[in-house]
Design goal:
Blueprint lengths: L7 H12 L1 H7 L3 H25 L4 H28 L3 H26 L11 H13 L3 H26 L6
Helix pairs in contact: 1-3, 1-4, 2-3, 2-4, 3-4, 3-6, 4-5, 5-7, 6-7
Length: 175
């Protein structure tokens, strides 16, 4: 893509723009297109990192930009779920979507916070690619609530794994 003058940061931004289509399709109950848009956005997420490494444009701002916009993408997808379940007047599923949104963001936050403390924290059973894949499968099989529940449970486990990892690997216990 860099031959087109599009750098990794532009690819990251394009991925967020693709993600906006997920709630559009979700609200219309167009499950397959919603899943395809979600996987397409995931492709951009893989592409931006690969382009950054291969073009020598990997740097602190790019990593920050990528992580920040990944959270925006997640919020857009979960915002779509919240709107959908609100529209369907399904308060239980709406609360599930809200809780899973929080857990999903916590998975990323725990890693970022650990790394801010100098502890590498790539542990856990459900990082972002797994969450994207499971939600896409939920769309493809029109089982969005089930997919959310699975992502929520596995995200909770991942958050706990990361908290335990940091606790176990802390260098100094001054707190």
């Amino acid at each position: 893509m860099s031959f087109l003058g599009i750098g990794p940061n532009g690819i990251t931004l394009a991925g967020v723009m693709v993600t906006v289509m997920v709630p559009v399709e979700l609200l219309q109950e167009k499950w397959i297109p919603a899943g395809l848009w979600l996987l397409g956005a995931g492709f951009f997420d893989i592409l931006d990192g690969s382009l950054a490494r291969n073009s020598g444009k990997k740097g602190p701002f790019g990593a920050f930009w990528d992580s920040t916009l990944d959270r925006v993408s997640e919020a857009v997808v979960f915002g779509g779920f919240l709107l959908y379940y609100y529209q369907k007047q399904n308060p239980q599923a709406l609360l599930l979507a809200f809780g899973v949104c929080i857990l999903s963001l916590l998975v990323s936050y725990t890693r970022a916070r650990a790394e801010g403390l100098g502890i590498k924290c790539e542990v856990g059973i459900l990082p972002r690619p797994g969450r994207v894949s499971l939600l896409a499968l939920g769309f493809f099989f029109a089982q969005t609530t089930l997919a959310l529940a699975v992502v929520g449970g596995l995200s909770l486990i991942t958050v706990c794994q990361r908290i335990h990892w940091v606790w176990k690997h802390q260098k100094v216990t001054n707190r």
